[in-house]
Every structure is written in C-alpha cells, then in structure tokens.
Amino acid sequence: MFYIGVDLGTSAVKLLLMDSDGKIVNIVSKEYPLYFPHPGWSEQKPEDWYEQTVIGIKELIRDVDKSQVAGISFGGQMHGLVILDENDQVIRPAILWNDGRTTEETEYLNTVIGKEKLSEYTANIAFAGFTAPKILWVKNKEPENFARIAKIMLPKDYIAYKLTGVHCTDVSDASGMLLFDVKNRKWSREMCDICGISVDQLAKCYESYETVGTVLPQVAEELGVSASVKVAAGAGDNAAAAVGTGTVGDNMCNISLGTSGTIFISSKNFGVDKYNALHSFAHADGSYHLMGCMLSAASCNKWWMDDIIGTKDYAGEQQSIEKLGENHVYFLPYLMGERSPHNNPNARAVFLGMSMDTTRADMTQAVLEGVAFALRDSLEVAKSLGIELTRTKICGGGAKSPLWKKIIANVLNLKVDVIESEEGPAMGGAMLAAVACGEYGSVEEIAAKVVKVVETVEPDADLVAKYEERYGQFKEIYPACKPLF
C-alpha cells in the first residue's frame, strides 16, 4: 500500500509518497505566495494551500496504482489562524506563525491575565506567533470578522477539512494555540473564555495517528483514488519532523534547520520549564515534548546569500570557511524577532565585531554560527531542567550543509546523527498515515523500522572548547542590544 505525507510549509507544500516498508516512492513540491500587507505581518490564503495540495497529489501518484493509496496525513506549519464562517468559507487570509502583529495582545495575556495563569491553563505562556493572541487581535481590530467566526482551525487542518469534510486538529498542533490544556490533552475552557470564543468553535482534537475520516467522494474522484482512503489527523510540523526522524519515545532530540529552527526533545513525562522559555507540547507519539523555537534559522542563510551577497552557490560560499571556533564576527539571527528563549518580537539581527580584515567568508561563517549559538540558548534551558543529552538527529534544508552540521555538533557538544531520509514533516505525515491504517501498531514501531542513521558527526574536544568561549561572548550580545530594540 501507499501512504501520502503532506508537509504544508510556509513557502511550499511538499508531498511525499511512501510504501508499506517506509521506502520513498516519489516527492513533489508546489509553491504558493506569501503576503506581507504591513511590516511584520505575514499571511497566506488557505485556498492556495488546498489548490496546490490537490495539484501536487495528482502529480505525486500519477505513475503508481492509485487503488493502492491507503492513507493521507500531515505535518503543517503551526500556530496559523484560519477562520471559517457558518458556510465553511474562509473569512480572511490566514495569519501565520511568523506574523508579529500581536504585540499588544501577547502583552495583555502575559501581564494582565498573567504568565502563571496561562501556564496553569495551557503549560505555556503567550508568544506573538501563537494562535490565541491572533484571535484576540481579530476581536480587537476586525470585530466584523470576529463576529462571523464559526470555526477556528490551523493550517494543515484546513486541508484535512477540505479532504474529509471533518473539522479536526491534533494534540501536537493544538498545543501551540495557547488554547489547549496540554497536560490533560483537551481544550482549555478558561482560555476560550479569555479569548471570547466557545469550545464549539474549535475543531475536534485527535491523537496524531488517529483517523479523522475518509476522503469525500468528489475528492476521491478528482484525485483518482478510492473513497476509502483514510485521513489521519497528522501533527504540527516539528512533531511530524520528529516522527520522520525517529525522535519518539523518551529523551530523544531532533534539531530542525528550516525557515525557523527548533530543538525538539521527546519525553514520556509531562514537564514545564518554569521560565517558559521552552514550549511544553503534546507529542505525535502519544506522549509529550519540550521545544525551543527560533524564528529565523536557514532563512538567515538564505537572506544573507540571496538578498545581501547575491548568490545561489551556498556550498561554494562555505568552501573557504576553515577556521572554526576562531571567528571574531558574531551574528544575532533575529531577522523576524525571536521566540525561544527571549520571547521578543522586536529583537533584530545584528552583526558585531567586524574590522578592516573581516572577509565575506567570516560574515557567512558568523551567520551559520549565530544560528547554532541561538539553538544552544534553548539547549541550556533544557539542561537546567536536568535533561542530559549526548546526541541529536538533524533535518531541514540547512541540514544538507556538512559545514553547518559540524558547527552545530561542536557548538552544542552533541553527536549529530544524519538519517537516510531527511524529509522531515512529509515523511512523518506518511508514517502517521501508515499507523492510522493499521500497517504498524504504533508510532515508535514504524520509527524503529523506517528511520536509519547513515552518518554521525562527532564533536571535536578542541573545537568544543573554542566554541564554549565564543558562546560565552555571544550570550552577552543580546542583553547589551536589547534596549536598542
């Protein structure tokens, strides 16, 4: 049988076709526009997501026996606000995870309602990108749209709804809304009251590997598949990537170097960081995870390469970088503000330490190191909770760079395991579909069978010591610059 994984990203939807043994049969990617109607705003049209997903699925399964397609599931960009009216029509463009408009609402939640209350209700505090502040923003700034809301959904859940007619979400993605009681895996009535909405306006919540329905007859006909194809709830992109990299079970770690960057630590037990610098979310494997998220990771390198120095030769630019741990140039990677651990939408990127002998290669190296140092910030919080890690998996576009993997291994002092298939959320989505269809008994079972480590980047003791010193200096830069932001 075949299983489709849909990774609904910020720049494109990536579709992956996997067979019963976990072998990737085909991959297709379809782009759609991103809109920035005001500085700091970030929006997309849900209709574009679905249109490109359908086009992509048709292309994905064009050359296989379509009657063998058994299931579809998702990994999706988290936190985005999709609102539908009583006729299930989209009311306004989706407000995305990297949108910074909710400063007032976030401040209100954290100070007036209070971080302690939020943490008690949801295990998290308010961040500008989370969904609850966006709902309050619509309530405050677009009351006529707020009055029309019949259903509140997350990006990937809109695709699931269009395929099945079911309003659904999953525990991992719901955890990032600030409306979900993570510990008890259910909606928080207190948070709904605070946002002025009812639980009925939220979608029904499933475990990531549970079936929400089957594809609608008209959808099955359009795609050329059976109407018995099951659709599983899926997961937020980071939880789906964790499934795709085998970061399930207890005390496993995955680093994702995508548009955003995350450090993801799976745990059998529920836990909250008392400073709320890390997110405490439900995991797609039925347990929990802690996650630190930086808003700009591989996108920092893309910005530096494409927009500033004007090249597409990423590998070529990295070739001349040799003196690791000795760079005097530092880069704060806060191009879109920052989430973990600073929670400051007004933070900005900074280059520091240039002199007349600074080279283009030094600046490029500083960008790569700055992202690694910022990931280390979140790792330090995890360490303060008594979490001891020795290794991590890695995925995302940035993970294709051998140099970047080496920098991360030494800055974080972790063995970095590279897996055979770095397809992250799309692979995780396909794996969740296979579990939903009964092909495998659990998420852990399929991860053990399918995920294969092909290379390990080991930290070098001398480099670790050099980077320890560099990190000590990096840590001083943000507090020094903070008043200027």
Characterization of this structure:
The protein is of the alpha/beta class and 485 residues long. It has 16 helices and 24 strands. Strands 1, 2, 3, 5, 13, 14 and 15 form a seven-stranded mixed β-sheet that branches. A seven-stranded mixed β-sheet has the order 18-19-17-16-22-23-24, sandwiched between helices. A two-stranded antiparallel sheet has the order 4-7. β10 and β11 form a beta hairpin. α12 crosses α13. It is globular. The model has no long low-confidence stretch (mean pLDDT 96).
- Report low-confidence residues grouped into runs of 5 or more: none
Q: How far apart are the first and last residues' alpha carbons, in Å? A: 53 Å
**What is the tally of helical segments?**
16
Please tell me how large the radius of gyration is. Answer: 21 Å
* Main sheet properties: 7 strands, mixed
The gross shape turns out to be globular
Could you tell me the number of beta strands? Answer: 24
The average pLDDT score comes to 96
Percent of sequence in beta strands? 15-25%
Give me the secondary-structure category. Answer: alpha/beta
Q: Helix share of residues?
A: 25-40%
Keywords for this entry:
single chain, 485 residues, alpha/beta, 7-stranded mixed beta sheet, 16 helices, 38% helix, globular
